[in-house]
Amino acid sequence: MSILNEAMIKFKELISEKGFINTEISVKVAPLTASEAIGNPQRRDYPIIEGKERMIEALFFDSKGQAFTDYPSEFSGTLKEVLGLDISKNCNRAKIIAVINAVLRHLNITSQTVHCKNEEPEKCSKEMMEHILEKFGMIKIGLIGLNPSIAEALVNSFGADNVRITDLNRKNKGVFKYGVEIWDGKERTEDLVKDSDLILITGTTLVNGSLDKILDHVKEYGKEYSVYGTTIAGVSSLMNLNRLCFYGSDE
Question: CA-to-CA distance for 189 and 182, rounded, in angstroms?
Answer without folding.
Answer: 11
